[in-house]
């Protein structure tokens, strides 16, 4: 092999190497990058599909949970009268007092605007204070409070004052501040 043939082989080798580097950088490297990106995307999609399958498999439990939450929401909605139902609540309080042998002297819903640490524009309910003045014995008052506690509506006793009556020692003067919650 003479010198020119060796030079031609070296030249062809160099040109081949340069073409290989050129093709690799121009064609293969971007293809490998796309392949790697596609592989990452496939893995991500597989994870997402697995998560969706798990949700689908859990659909009966989610439906059951939704039903339970709906029942609870319906109960709360029934337990929260709207503002128009306040007279009915006052009648119910009077009935409970009568059943408990508590004599109501005065029952009055208070202004909502004056009491509202819990009123917020994003809440669906407001606190409705009610003032009751009554006369009863301790046991009758205890029955009345127990019956209030068993109402199908939410009530909160905010303040209770009991003052003895010198003229009638068996019955006491009672001032009761309570609240119920009403839907807006």
What keyword list fits this structure?
alpha+beta; 184 residues; rod-shaped; 4 strands
Give your account of this protein's structure.
The protein is α+β, with helices and mostly antiparallel strands. Helix content is 55%, strand content 22%. It has 4 helices and 4 strands, in the order αααββαββ. The chain has helices at 3-57, 59-79, 86-99, 138-149, and strands spanning 103-109, 125-136, 155-164, 172-183. Strands 1-2-4-3 form a 4-stranded antiparallel sheet. The longest helix is centred in the N-terminal third of the chain and has 55 residues, at 3-57. Residues 114-120 have low confidence and may be disordered.
Query: Gap between N and C termini, in Å?
Result: 103 Å
| Major beta sheet, strand line-up | 1-2-4-3
* Low-confidence blocks of residues: 114-120
Shape annotation: rod-shaped
Sheet-strand content, in percent, reads 15-25%
Helical residue percent band: 55-70%
Major beta sheet summary: 4 strands, antiparallel
Based on CA atoms alone, the radius of gyration comes out at: 40 Å
Number of strands: 4
Topology, element by element:
Blueprint: H1 3-57, H2 59-79, H3 86-99, E1 103-109, E2 125-136, H4 138-149, E3 155-164, E4 172-183
Antiparallel strand pairs: 1-2, 2-4, 3-4
Q: In short, what is this structure?
A:
The protein is of the alpha+beta class and 184 residues long.
């Amino acid at each position: 092999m003479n010198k020119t043939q060796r030079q031609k082989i070296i030249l062809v080798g160099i040109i081949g190497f340069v073409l290989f580097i050129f093709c690799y950088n121009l064609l293969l490297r971007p293809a490998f990058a796309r392949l790697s990106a596609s592989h990452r995307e496939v893995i991500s999609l597989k994870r997402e599909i697995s998560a969706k399958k798990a949700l689908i498999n859990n659909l009966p439990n989610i439906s059951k949970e939704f039903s339970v939450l709906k029942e609870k929401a319906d109960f709360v909605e029934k337990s929260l009268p709207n503002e128009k139902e306040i007279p009915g609540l006052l009648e119910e309080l009077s009935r409970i007092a009568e059943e408990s042998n508590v004599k109501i002297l005065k029952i009055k819903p208070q202004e909502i605007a004056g009491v509202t640490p819990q009123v917020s524009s994003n809440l669906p309910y407001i606190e409705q204070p009610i003032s009751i003045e009554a006369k009863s014995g301790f046991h009758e008052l205890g029955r009345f409070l127990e019956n209030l506690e068993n109402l199908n509506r939410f009530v909160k006793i905010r303040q209770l004052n009991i003052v003895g009556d010198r003229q009638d020692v068996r019955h006491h003067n009672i001032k009761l501040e309570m609240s119920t919650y009403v839907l807006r």
